[in-house]
Predict the 3D structure of the following.
Amino acid sequence: MPTLRLLLDWTLYRLALLLAAPLIPLRLLWRGRRERGYWRHWGERLALGPAPVTGALWIHAVSVGEMRAAQPLINALRAAHPDAPVLLTCMTPTGRATAEALYGDFAHIVYLPYDYAGSMRRLMRRVRPRVGILMETELWPNLIHAAVRAGAPLVLANARLSERSARGYARLPALTRACLARVAVVAAQTGADAARLEKLGAASVHVTGNLKFDIAPPAAQLELGAAWKAKWGRRPVLLAASTREGEEVLLLRAFAETVPADVLLVLVPRHPQRFDEVAGLIEAAGLAYRRRSLLDGELDPQTRVLLGDSLGELFAYYAACDVAFVGGSLAPLGGQNLIEAASVGRPVLVGPHTFNFEEATRLAIEADAALRVDDADGLLKNALKLLNDAPTRARMGEAGLAFAARHRGAAVRVAAFISPLLASGAGRSRPGRPD
């Protein structure tokens, strides 16, 4: 019976891939209208062309957040294995841009092919990685099957799995179990994540903590944020970071109706392809605004909103604000990472929907580093209270710094599981560029 169920799950998965095949180029063309990076490197998405490197430490991080989270782990592994070449794969142009900015001086960076059996076999045959690290929850059946057949042990690092995602994987239980059983090590963020992964079939599961706690705010960005704050006239600054679809309209309406004119709203959408769309929403709300990308000198006192249309400067935005709201949480989207704001020492506000960062949010609230609000009106009400209460802001900021420091160390713990796999795989493939 289990074999029959696995056969059925595999058949359904392969049928879905077959039906999706004609839509892939259409999707890339459509997405490329707003983000031109989707129009480039199509060969990589089919594992075509020369191999970028062989015998590498291979890390797959789907997009920006996962690519940033990998940084402390990559640093720890490079310190322990300085001779191992590094291959990074991703799925989005913004993830690729982040990888190039953070690791471009030493890593080989390509798109991961779509999860078709032929493409994955071709990738593994060409690249022959020593070990593969899949960041967070990247369970692709053909990828896992091809890697194991190629002799590359797999690690699921910084693994997280919400109840909603677990229910999705449970729809193909035999296939999910077969995939997780082939992963050599699962390094889960929390005990709840570990329990859900074990229930789905993961074998070697360890709770190692969240790698995002190990990301130290860059000094250069902290200095940049302080310089911005001075140029903005030292006005009270509310930052809305990593906002998502449907949130900006609610936030801008409440801001225009309830917030005094001296307060500056800095609005940083999560996805760069939405910068122009959000600019239109600010105009529709009747608020004077400027774009960060076009701002050279000081900010006009009449400006109510600064649109953060720049990449790689989120720590600077946190350093320049007095209170930070972390988006993706007013709408039922699961929230975004609040650890960065806490690590800069800023009081944090989040909405009711934080299931993607459930444990970190709970711990931050328990540490008095963050407050949860119910809606946009509650957000602005609590933000104004904090902007007018310097002692409470200072206390929450200090609590955030302590909260972030208390949970560091995941990179060392995860690297301790990966290093033996990487060392044992050194003889399987010859590192370096192929002929």
Observations:
- The chain has two domains: 20-209+409-424, 219-406.
- The chain has 19 helices and 14 strands.
- The mean pLDDT is 92.
